[in-house]
Amino acid sequence: MVKLRVLERSLERREQRGELEELRALAAGTLEGVRRLAAHLRPSLLDDLGLPAAVKAYVDQFAHLWGIPVHLRVRGLDGRLPPEVELALYRVLQEALTNVARHAGASQAWVSLRRERGCLVLTVKDDGCGFDVAAVMADRERGLGLFGMQERMALVGGSLAIRSRLEAGTEVVARVPLPSERGR
Known about the structure:
Blueprint: H1 2-10, H2 14-41, H3 44-49, H4 51-66, E1 70-75, H5 83-104, E2 109-116, E3 119-126, H6 133-138, H7 144-155, E4 159-164, E5 170-177
């Protein structure tokens, strides 16, 4: 960016400076987009304060951005979780809520994060139009986000269940066994 600014100032012809200014603005916008994307993929809040705080912040941001109320409930989460588990669940939350915004036509959503029988369970539900899960999962292109959520859960030893009925909404349930609680 600095070199572009120096080059812009060194040009004598006004039209060249204008074109370089456009290029510099494009580069600045791209750089800002990459910064936002990096923060979105792994927010510092996740590292600093943990999954419950990051989930609350994301739910609040989502509701504000999309105008879809999200009812959040967090239960039984004291202390930190393994970083790979926190990140996997956070990314599943992002994808599930993105699907609510893009596809569900929902008027509201519910997010629950809880400890349950030695597992950490994230549930995202909506009151939207629903879809045929089997048909979407059979179409690798359409179901890419769903496959991504399944893969994230598999990487941390967890599972993903998706239940949906036409005109009755969708429920995504991500379940991860907690290492210190296996066998309880």
